[in-house]
Amino acid sequence: MKVLSLLNVFLLFVCHFSFANNIIVNGTRFIYAENDKEITVQLNNTANRPAVAQVWLDEGDPKALPETIKTPFQITPPISKISASGGQTIRIKLVDRTLLSTDKETLYWLNLLDIPPITKSEKNAEQNMLQLAIRSRFKFMYRPKNLGSRELAPEQLQIFAGKQNIQVKNPTPFFITITAINDEKTTLNTEAFMLAPGESQTIKINGVVNPGDNIIINNINDYGAEVPAKIKVK
Protein backbone atom coordinates (compact mmCIF):
# COMPACT_ATOMS: atom_id res chain seq x y z
CA MET A 1 0.00 0.00 0.00
CA LYS A 2 1.32 3.40 -0.87
CA VAL A 3 2.50 5.46 2.13
CA LEU A 4 0.04 8.25 2.77
CA SER A 5 0.95 11.90 3.14
CA LEU A 6 1.18 13.24 6.66
CA LEU A 7 -1.27 16.01 5.78
CA ASN A 8 -4.34 16.01 7.96
CA VAL A 9 -6.56 17.06 5.08
CA PHE A 10 -6.51 15.77 1.56
CA LEU A 11 -8.94 16.86 -1.13
CA LEU A 12 -10.83 14.93 -3.74
CA PHE A 13 -12.68 17.99 -5.12
CA VAL A 14 -15.31 19.88 -3.10
CA CYS A 15 -18.84 19.38 -1.74
CA HIS A 16 -19.54 16.10 0.06
CA PHE A 17 -17.73 15.69 3.42
CA SER A 18 -16.41 12.49 5.00
CA PHE A 19 -14.77 12.55 8.46
CA ALA A 20 -12.52 9.97 10.09
CA ASN A 21 -12.65 9.93 13.87
CA ASN A 22 -13.75 6.40 14.63
CA ILE A 23 -10.49 4.69 15.64
CA ILE A 24 -10.06 4.37 19.40
CA VAL A 25 -6.60 3.90 20.95
CA ASN A 26 -6.07 1.98 24.19
CA GLY A 27 -4.16 4.74 25.97
CA THR A 28 -3.28 8.42 26.16
CA ARG A 29 0.48 7.90 26.57
CA PHE A 30 2.84 4.98 26.11
CA ILE A 31 5.92 3.97 28.10
CA TYR A 32 8.64 1.80 26.58
CA ALA A 33 10.74 0.48 29.46
CA GLU A 34 14.34 -0.56 28.81
CA ASN A 35 13.58 -4.20 29.61
CA ASP A 36 10.63 -4.40 27.21
CA LYS A 37 11.16 -6.56 24.13
CA GLU A 38 8.28 -4.69 22.48
CA ILE A 39 5.07 -2.92 23.40
CA THR A 40 1.69 -3.07 21.70
CA VAL A 41 -0.88 -0.42 20.89
CA GLN A 42 -4.44 -1.57 20.26
CA LEU A 43 -6.56 0.22 17.66
CA ASN A 44 -10.32 -0.39 17.51
CA ASN A 45 -12.61 0.81 14.74
CA THR A 46 -15.97 1.84 16.22
CA ALA A 47 -17.54 2.62 12.84
CA ASN A 48 -19.76 0.37 10.73
CA ARG A 49 -17.39 0.79 7.79
CA PRO A 50 -13.70 -0.05 7.31
CA ALA A 51 -10.98 2.46 8.09
CA VAL A 52 -7.32 2.88 7.18
CA ALA A 53 -4.81 3.77 9.90
CA GLN A 54 -1.24 5.00 9.52
CA VAL A 55 0.99 4.98 12.61
CA TRP A 56 4.45 6.51 13.02
CA LEU A 57 6.75 8.14 15.59
CA ASP A 58 8.30 11.60 15.42
CA GLU A 59 10.84 13.43 17.56
CA GLY A 60 8.66 16.47 18.21
CA ASP A 61 8.21 18.12 14.82
CA PRO A 62 4.55 17.60 13.86
CA LYS A 63 5.22 18.81 10.31
CA ALA A 64 7.87 16.18 9.52
CA LEU A 65 6.80 13.60 6.94
CA PRO A 66 6.86 9.97 8.09
CA GLU A 67 9.22 8.92 5.32
CA THR A 68 11.81 11.52 6.45
CA ILE A 69 11.81 10.58 10.14
CA LYS A 70 14.37 8.21 11.63
CA THR A 71 13.79 6.79 15.11
CA PRO A 72 15.28 3.75 16.87
CA PHE A 73 11.89 2.02 16.86
CA GLN A 74 10.21 -0.26 14.33
CA ILE A 75 6.42 -0.16 13.95
CA THR A 76 4.51 -3.15 12.57
CA PRO A 77 2.34 -2.65 10.61
CA PRO A 78 2.82 1.07 9.82
CA ILE A 79 -0.35 1.11 7.69
CA SER A 80 -3.35 -1.13 8.18
CA LYS A 81 -6.93 -1.51 7.05
CA ILE A 82 -9.26 -2.13 9.98
CA SER A 83 -12.59 -3.79 9.27
CA ALA A 84 -15.88 -2.38 10.54
CA SER A 85 -16.07 -2.84 14.33
CA GLY A 86 -12.71 -4.61 14.12
CA GLY A 87 -9.33 -4.11 15.74
CA GLN A 88 -5.63 -4.00 14.91
CA THR A 89 -2.64 -4.59 17.19
CA ILE A 90 0.34 -2.35 16.48
CA ARG A 91 3.72 -3.66 17.66
CA ILE A 92 6.55 -1.26 18.48
CA LYS A 93 10.05 -2.66 18.92
CA LEU A 94 13.33 -0.97 19.83
CA VAL A 95 16.00 -1.79 17.24
CA ASP A 96 18.83 0.64 18.14
CA ARG A 97 19.62 1.65 21.73
CA THR A 98 22.62 3.82 20.82
CA LEU A 99 20.41 6.83 20.05
CA LEU A 100 18.79 6.86 23.50
CA SER A 101 19.83 8.40 26.81
CA THR A 102 20.63 5.99 29.62
CA ASP A 103 20.18 8.44 32.52
CA LYS A 104 16.84 10.08 31.65
CA GLU A 105 13.69 9.54 29.63
CA THR A 106 13.55 10.25 25.89
CA LEU A 107 10.32 11.66 24.46
CA TYR A 108 8.84 10.79 21.08
CA TRP A 109 5.34 11.34 19.72
CA LEU A 110 3.15 8.51 18.45
CA ASN A 111 1.02 9.62 15.49
CA LEU A 112 -2.22 8.06 14.30
CA LEU A 113 -3.77 9.12 11.00
CA ASP A 114 -7.39 7.90 10.79
CA ILE A 115 -8.45 7.84 7.13
CA PRO A 116 -12.04 7.20 6.00
CA PRO A 117 -12.35 4.89 3.00
CA ILE A 118 -14.42 5.77 -0.04
CA THR A 119 -17.35 3.40 -0.47
CA LYS A 120 -18.49 2.10 -3.84
CA SER A 121 -21.59 4.25 -3.65
CA GLU A 122 -19.46 7.32 -3.02
CA LYS A 123 -17.18 6.43 -5.93
CA ASN A 124 -20.18 6.06 -8.21
CA ALA A 125 -21.88 9.21 -6.98
CA GLU A 126 -21.83 12.15 -9.32
CA GLN A 127 -21.29 14.61 -6.50
CA ASN A 128 -17.83 15.92 -5.78
CA MET A 129 -16.21 14.94 -2.50
CA LEU A 130 -14.03 16.41 0.24
CA GLN A 131 -12.38 13.72 2.36
CA LEU A 132 -10.95 14.62 5.78
CA ALA A 133 -8.52 12.49 7.77
CA ILE A 134 -8.06 12.97 11.51
CA ARG A 135 -4.60 12.90 13.05
CA SER A 136 -3.93 12.29 16.75
CA ARG A 137 -0.62 12.47 18.63
CA PHE A 138 0.27 10.66 21.86
CA LYS A 139 3.30 10.93 24.12
CA PHE A 140 5.66 7.98 23.75
CA MET A 141 8.50 7.80 26.26
CA TYR A 142 11.50 5.53 26.42
CA ARG A 143 12.39 4.90 30.06
CA PRO A 144 15.82 3.50 31.01
CA LYS A 145 16.04 1.27 34.05
CA ASN A 146 17.43 2.45 37.39
CA LEU A 147 15.86 5.92 37.22
CA GLY A 148 14.08 5.54 40.54
CA SER A 149 10.38 5.93 41.26
CA ARG A 150 8.27 7.73 38.64
CA GLU A 151 5.37 7.81 41.09
CA LEU A 152 7.36 9.92 43.57
CA ALA A 153 8.98 12.19 40.97
CA PRO A 154 6.38 15.02 41.12
CA GLU A 155 7.05 15.48 44.84
CA GLN A 156 10.70 16.20 43.97
CA LEU A 157 9.84 19.24 41.85
CA GLN A 158 11.31 22.48 43.19
CA ILE A 159 9.15 25.61 43.30
CA PHE A 160 10.54 29.09 43.91
CA ALA A 161 8.38 32.10 44.78
CA GLY A 162 8.31 35.16 42.54
CA LYS A 163 6.11 38.21 41.94
CA GLN A 164 2.86 36.99 40.37
CA ASN A 165 4.77 33.93 39.18
CA ILE A 166 6.65 30.89 40.35
CA GLN A 167 9.64 29.07 38.94
CA VAL A 168 9.14 25.32 38.64
CA LYS A 169 12.26 23.18 38.27
CA ASN A 170 12.32 19.49 37.43
CA PRO A 171 15.48 17.87 38.85
CA THR A 172 14.23 14.35 38.05
CA PRO A 173 15.04 12.16 35.00
CA PHE A 174 11.33 12.00 34.08
CA PHE A 175 9.03 14.09 31.88
CA ILE A 176 6.32 15.57 34.10
CA THR A 177 3.09 17.12 32.80
CA ILE A 178 1.37 19.55 35.17
CA THR A 179 -2.31 20.34 34.60
CA ALA A 180 -3.08 22.69 37.52
CA ILE A 181 -1.43 24.51 40.42
CA ASN A 182 -3.35 25.34 43.61
CA ASP A 183 -2.64 26.60 47.08
CA GLU A 184 -4.70 25.53 50.06
CA LYS A 185 -7.47 28.02 49.21
CA THR A 186 -7.40 29.07 45.56
CA THR A 187 -6.53 27.93 42.05
CA LEU A 188 -3.29 29.54 40.93
CA ASN A 189 -2.96 28.21 37.38
CA THR A 190 -4.89 25.82 35.13
CA GLU A 191 -2.77 25.97 31.96
CA ALA A 192 -1.13 22.59 31.37
CA PHE A 193 2.60 22.42 30.66
CA MET A 194 5.32 19.79 30.51
CA LEU A 195 8.74 19.83 32.14
CA ALA A 196 11.56 17.86 30.55
CA PRO A 197 14.24 16.32 32.79
CA GLY A 198 16.35 19.13 34.24
CA GLU A 199 14.11 21.86 32.81
CA SER A 200 12.86 25.00 34.60
CA GLN A 201 9.87 27.15 33.62
CA THR A 202 8.48 30.40 34.98
CA ILE A 203 4.71 30.15 35.37
CA LYS A 204 2.29 33.05 35.92
CA ILE A 205 -0.12 32.54 38.80
CA ASN A 206 -3.35 34.14 39.97
CA GLY A 207 -2.17 35.24 43.37
CA VAL A 208 0.94 35.37 45.50
CA VAL A 209 2.88 32.59 47.18
CA ASN A 210 5.67 32.94 49.70
CA PRO A 211 8.55 30.73 50.75
CA GLY A 212 7.29 28.10 53.14
CA ASP A 213 3.81 27.93 51.60
CA ASN A 214 2.45 24.57 50.53
CA ILE A 215 0.98 24.26 47.06
CA ILE A 216 -0.65 21.37 45.26
CA ILE A 217 0.25 20.45 41.70
CA ASN A 218 -1.93 18.15 39.65
CA ASN A 219 0.13 16.00 37.31
CA ILE A 220 -0.46 13.13 34.89
CA ASN A 221 0.80 9.68 35.86
CA ASP A 222 1.79 6.78 33.59
CA TYR A 223 -1.84 5.71 33.23
CA GLY A 224 -3.13 9.10 32.10
CA ALA A 225 -4.78 9.86 35.45
CA GLU A 226 -4.51 13.23 37.16
CA VAL A 227 -2.94 12.96 40.62
CA PRO A 228 -1.98 15.61 43.21
CA ALA A 229 1.40 16.24 44.82
CA LYS A 230 2.14 18.65 47.68
CA ILE A 231 5.30 20.78 47.45
CA LYS A 232 6.71 23.43 49.80
CA VAL A 233 7.66 26.71 48.11
CA LYS A 234 11.28 27.84 48.43
From TrEMBL:
Domain of life: Bacteria
PANTHER family according to UniProt: FIMBRIAL CHAPERONE YEHC-RELATED, PILUS ASSEMBLY CHAPERONE
GO cellular component: outer membrane-bounded periplasmic space
Keyword terms: Chaperone, Periplasm, Signal
Keyword Transit peptide (UniProt): no
InterPro entries, per database record: Ig-like_fold, PapD-like_sf, Periplasmic_pilus_chap, Pili_assmbl_chap_C_dom_sf, Pili_assmbl_chaperone_bac, Pili_assmbl_chaperone_C, Pili_assmbl_chaperone_N
Domain Pili assembly chaperone C-terminal: from-to ranges: 168-227
Gene Ontology terms: biological process: cell wall organization
Endpoints of the signal sequence: 1-20
Chaperone listed as a keyword: yes
Gene3D superfamilies assigned: Immunoglobulins (2.60.40.10)
Chief localization: periplasm
Residue ranges annotated for the Pili assembly chaperone N-terminal domain, each copy included: 23-147
Intracellular or extracellular location(s): Periplasm
Family named by the database record: Belongs to the periplasmic pilus chaperone family.
Organism annotation: Providencia huaxiensis
Stated name of the protein: Molecular chaperone
Lineage, top ranks: Bacteria, Pseudomonadati, Pseudomonadota, Gammaproteobacteria, Enterobacterales
